[in-house]
UniProtKB/TrEMBL annotation:
One of its GO terms (molecular function) is zinc ion binding. This is Dihydroorotase. It holds the Pfam family DHOase. The active site is at 310. Coiled coil: none annotated. It comes from Microvirga aerophila. Zn(2+) 1 binds at residue 310. GO terms for biological process: 'de novo' UMP biosynthetic process; purine nucleobase catabolic process. Pathway: Pyrimidine metabolism; UMP biosynthesis via de novo pathway; (S)-dihydroorotate from bicarbonate: step 3/3.
Length: 437
């Protein structure tokens, strides 16, 4: 078997979010790694050359929160379809959630998912294991064995561990393995029958509201348990100004805490629900515009570490219902970058800072080698035109489920090529070598 020829991307706007460096130049890829990068790249004469036409070339995105139906609910999403959607959206690594059937609370199931992903997915899939057995919040899962099997983090997905003693034990035990606890901060008792953000808009729609305290009370408790145990903790998604202040204070005290935000809570607010649009029924719910602005400020000042898609496929039967009865969730892998670029175009967020929250910081938090545009780094790369306008048609999404909150939205910024481990897996640049898909 002959070695693959080197591939040289030229005429690119290079953005390395790890260093903050931005320059014109090229990237040389061979053997699945970045061999050289910069304004002047020395290359052998047999290299294939791809002209990026001045578009951005950056590390591939790493999404720390994606629900995938396989195993158990492959009609909603498979590892294959999720990988195709991710590649089209510039996501080269997915952290999959454990709420499958069976639940990812056994090393053998973790192994199955990893093998299945290697065989069928064109992007990297890193499974998160269940924090508690059966996601019931009652008994801690076997964190040590699951970590050995390949789990990169521990979470109960969209369920909160309400028992403080269980959470304390999990944080203490995880500390000894340097394992990461990822928690959905939402008190189910305070959520009650609520279906959207509590406030004037919910009252006008006649829908029961979810108070911000459902999030902040749980987050405050977790921060105190982190202070007690010293365990590594990541709040999966925060959504309101008070939560940002809690995280800001915890970080100022040197606690080992990080947090994420859903792209939905950065790009949308409660008014977008409009006439009971169930594709915008989410957890955490879309908040007031003041909270959305607070999330953007927290992202810019570094309080928020990562942006996630919160990809949660739902089929027609669970979404085409009255708003109060519909399931939470929206697909988001394919639109993550385009929706995030709204912050660049409309809010003046620096593009390098945006990419850092979607590549470098997730890699650092999960202990992965990607997220940087440097020699020796994995050739998980994306090329995209940040100014390319388009109107999203949900029928063209590669996800099996079509429940996108951005249907018919005008978006700006489109991925033109995605590379994983040196292989082109999505291509609008017409790279000459055959894509290995």
């Amino acid at each position: 078997m002959t070695a693959e020829r080197p591939l040289l991307f030229t005429n690119a706007r290079l953005i390395d979010p790890a260093s903050g460096k931005e320059e014109r130049g090229g990237v040389l890829v061979q053997d699945g790694l970045i061999q050289d990068v910069g304004p002047y790249v020395a290359v052998a004469t047999d290299a294939e050359v791809v002209d990026c036409g001045g578009q951005v070339l950056a590390p591939g995105l790493i999404d720390m929160r994606a629900f995938i139906g396989e195993p158990g609910a492959a009609h909603r999403e498979t590892l294959k379809s999720a990988g195709e959607a991710a590649a089209a959206g510039g996501v080269t690594t997915i952290m999959s959630m454990p709420d499958t059937n069976p639940v990812l609370d056994d090393p053998a199931i973790i192994d199955f998912v990893m093998r299945r992903a290697r065989d069928t997915s064109i992007v990297n899939v890193r499974p998160a294991a269940a924090l508690t057995k059966g996601l019931k919040g009652e008994e801690m899962a076997e964190i040590g064995l699951l970590r050995e099997a390949g789990a990169v983090a521990f979470t109960d997905g969209d369920r909160s561990v309400t028992n403080a003693q269980v959470m304390r034990r999990a944080l203490t035990y995880a500390r000894d393995f340097d394992a990461l606890i990822v928690h959905h901060v939402e008190d189910p008792d305070l959520v009650g029958t609520g279906v959207m953000n509590e406030g004037e808009f919910a009252a006008r729609l006649g829908l029961p509201g979810i108070p911000r305290e459902a999030e902040t009370v749980m987050l405050e408790r977790d921060i105190r348990l982190v202070r007690l145990t010293g365990g590594r903790y990541h709040a999966a998604m925060i959504s309101c100004a008070d939560s940002a202040e809690i995280m800001r204070d915890a970080k100022s005290r040197g606690l080992p805490v990080t947090c994420g935000v859903s792209i939905n809570n950065l790009a949308l607010n409660e008014n977008d629900i409009g006439d009971y649009r169930t594709f915008l029924k989410l957890s955490p719910p879309l908040r007031h515009e003041d909270d959305r602005q607070a999330m953007i400020e927290a992202l810019v000042d570094g309080t928020i570490d990562v942006i996630v898609s919160d990809h949660n496929p739902q089929d027609v039967e669970t979404k085409r219902l009255p708003f109060s009865e519909a399931e939470n969730g929206a697909v988001g892998l394919e639109t993550l970058l385009s929706a995030a670029l709204r912050l660049v175009h409309s809010n003046g967020v620096p593009i390098a800072k945006l990419l850092r929250a979607m590549s470098t910081r997730p890699a650092e938090i999960l202990g992965l080698p990607g997220g940087r545009l440097q020699r020796g780094a994995p050739a998980d790369l994306i090329v995209f035109d940040p100014d390319a306008p388009y109107v999203l048609d949900k029928r063209q999404l590669r996800s099996l489920s079509k429940n996108t909150p951005f249907d018919e939205a005008r978006l700006q910024g489109q991925v033109t090529a995605t590379m994983v481990a040196g292989r082109i897996v999505f291509d609008r640049l017409n790279v000459s070598r055959e894509a290995n898909v």
